[in-house]
From TrEMBL:
<feature type="region of interest" description="Disordered">
    <location>
        <begin position="1"/>
        <end position="24"/>
    </location>
</feature>
<dbReference type="Pfam" id="PF13738">
    <property type="entry name" value="Pyr_redox_3"/>
</dbReference>
<protein>
    <submittedName>
        <fullName>Predicted flavoprotein CzcO associated with the cation diffusion facilitator CzcD</fullName>
    </submittedName>
</protein>
<dbReference type="InterPro" id="IPR051209">
    <property type="entry name" value="FAD-bind_Monooxygenase_sf"/>
</dbReference>
<dbReference type="InterPro" id="IPR036188">
    <property type="entry name" value="FAD/NAD-bd_sf"/>
</dbReference>
<feature type="compositionally biased region" description="Polar residues">
    <location>
        <begin position="1"/>
        <end position="12"/>
    </location>
</feature>
Amino acid sequence: MAGSALGTSTTPDETESNPLLGLPFDDPDDVIRAAIAEASVPALLMSMVHMTGDMALLDELPGPYLLIAMDLQGAMSEPDKQKVRDRAFDVIREYRDRGCPPPFVPDAQQMRVMFDVMSAGTLTEEFVDYVAADLRFSDADQCGPVLASTPEQRGDFPVVVIGCGEAGLLAGIKLKAAGIPFTIVEKQSAVGGTWLANRYPGCRVDIANQYYAYSFEPTDHWTHYYSEQPEILRYLQDVAAKHDIAPHVRFNTAVTGAVWDEESATWRVTIRGADGRIEVLTSRALICAVGQFSNSVIPDIKGAGDFRGPSFHTADWRDDVDLDGKRVAVIGAGASGFQLVPAIADSTQQVDVYQRTPQWMAPNSIYHDAIPDGARWAIRHLPYYGRWLRFVSWWPIADALDEQVRIDPEWDNGGLSCSESNHAIREMFIAWMRVFCTDEEILAKVTPNYPPMGKRTLQDNGTWLTTLQRPDVELITDGIAEVTVDGVTTVDGVHRPADVLVWATGFDVNHQLGPINVRGLDGVELNAAWGDSAYAYLGVTVPGFPNLFCMYGPGTNAVNGASIIYNSECQMRYIMGCIDMVLAGEFGSAIPKVEVCDDYNRRSQERLRSMVYSHPAVTSSYYKNAAGGLPTLYGFRIFDYWRWTSRPDPGDYELRSAAGELA
């Protein structure tokens, strides 16, 4: 593995500056005991090897016989976990007394042994480099391909980035590190993207925080395993401040359009400031980091604009509206409504929830849990513990449900499931729901009539069902006939008064550019070319649009257990490779070949058609476009995406001179 750190140790300076290696400590024994009691035992076991260099510990002590999704302890008996904890106390105390020396980093063979124990034999040779990079045993993911261009070439290649959410911020960090001048244009007032816009009560992430973080910026500041919006926003803004990105951002400024100028091989990007002033920026490349959740949707319901009280979408939350003692109508019971209603029910007089279709809930007992102080101490101080905790978070879910989401054409269960294994998931989900609800009427309303995972699967520890059983909360499944000046009337003629109307109705993910008009070769409009079936090679580059790069673009919405931040890192590594390919070859631009993009898109859609998201019982889903296609989804393995985006293949591209001629 090029650039590998295998078989080496680190210097004290590196330890002090790199939190994943563990910050030195001299805490007393009681602090160590508290940390061990609250730590993830599988991650603790691996950290012990880093503290001692003693591989025999993996023979001496029990390891997990299975890693379980959303369970940081894995499948281990209590006696086995106690054996590890007892030995860990001696190891950590001795490590402290030795002055917390640089941790041991395994060589290639030792690493494979650790992988085998930690994954209970599920991490095969195919995945070794992939996992080693994420654990930081290799610098492949952090550095990307070695740049062949010169600093002078990169310094003369200005880039405009649209959006400063997690993807745009990442783009700025990587461009800055490479010495490429850039400007980020952000329509909001600060860094954060969707985490700045979506600040409704209860808003939180549904990927474990150790995985929902930049691989190069691990942190121990999380207070919850699945953090709420303010904490994620603070993390993004802290990262931006650390890398001094703000001076490169034009806040409160919107991109209205961009036109490719073939003669100069540049993009002319039109922006509009908060004062309405129009300006044109010139760049050699354009990175579109607007994401798929930037255009909120309010459905076309009769009288939607007639309501006289406060009315707003969850993505445009009104901080000035006090919900205390109010009657609140929440239209929508998807992800945002699911999070919002339990968060406001204690303070409102009444909450009426209007549900079009129910969502499947996956059991997650720690979804709202705070991280104990001892567990945070372990992340901060124990070498590589936080990194192994990240592995425990993602390995059991990444690509793990491939069999369960595959449609078995021979399976017939009236559309309730798509295969035998998918049906087992259905039964498990229903059993979990019955733990928290004995009201058969409510259970009937919240149990979907389509296969599990066919739509976005929500996570719950019982909070949603418990809330729906409150006397001051009503779940309404009758269709809405109209919104009136003072409430909502359903098709059965029942009118329910409301003081506040909240639209929890999601986003238009199939038209992610929104009003931005991007024109490529021959003046072709990207929105027109895409229609509601957007496409891009690897979700990043688009035929006919030179030096245009998408992040969280078409076909990259990960429904296979990936963190969108992880996927963004893959995309930005690929984008840097494309830019370097243009510069090192002294080209003007790179455009993906039509046949290459078409083939990728065809294979992607063929795979998705064999998966549960395409099942005919899934009649309405934000995944689907008007034709029933799935242009937003990524259906391959995350491992494949990591491999495909490691570096661009010049053979996939038309490389043109600065004058626009094919090279």
